[in-house]
Design brief:
With 284 residues, the chain is α/β, with parallel strands linked by helices. It has one domain: Metal-dependent hydrolases (TIM Barrel), CATH 3.20.20. It is built from 14 helices and ten strands. It has a five-stranded parallel sheet with strand order 1-2-3-4-5, with helices on both faces. It binds zinc ion. Zinc ion binds at residues 36, 38, 125, 235, 237.
Length: 284
Amino acid sequence: MKALIVLVALLIAVYSPLSVQANEDRAAVIPIFDTHMHYSQGAWDIYSPGDIVEKMDKANVGSALVSSTPDEGTAMIFDFAPDRIVAGFRPYKVRGDMARWFENPDLIAYSKARLAPRRHRVFGEIILYMPENLETAEMKEYLNVAAKQDLILHPHSSAAVVEALFKKQPKLKILWAHAGFSEPAPVVAQMLDKYPNLWAELSYRADDIMAGEDLDPEWKDLLIRHSGRFTIGSDTWQSSRWSAYKGLIEEHRDWLKKLPSDVAKKIAYRNAELLLKKMLPAAQ
Ligand SMILES: [Zn+2]
């Protein structure tokens, strides 16, 4: 009799609508490799590294490429979860450095010291708005360090700046932040056609990729044709984006669901795993 009660209780637990729903939800939630995360100073007092990893877990984000202002933020989260974090380096001590970092000699020594232990795999996210920004003595040094340490560049830049970067160093690998932010699909397509070492990360692009309830046709063709070259990003540059983190990731899942599942898996995490040489922690 006792065994029967246990069996009935077990069956109710397994087949209750709640657990069925949970299983379906898990199946619908494709894991994500977030390739545009910041853990900058403004977030430190609000969220501990443990809170950030908890947010990743709740959004089923397995791994993340993190860069922070200042770089201590990245070190904190990397030390907390080294198996899940890829370190990017941005050469800013304070947010105000963003505008003129590429011509500020004081930041060169800081950057070289931070990069010396070779924990970073990526240089960026960096802001470079104009091709002329590359023509400084400091920028020459940064590009030399990037080449020497085999760092992938993560520039927030127009297509013209990405072209200028490849002109200076054709062997660079570039993860193009926000796929150029405002560059339209045909320009992103041309760039990916022209440069085999270019990948494009899609933070802030969900609104362009979706046209109403469906995928924008130009973006759909591009995402399928270059399915091996896109990655997902959240861009948590201010604390309000941390409070909205799960929603930012869900926005991406909304359009990923509309793609063939092999394409969606590549863009959601597989491309980032290959580019950044870091597997998601759980077996997929
Ligand atoms: Zn960013």
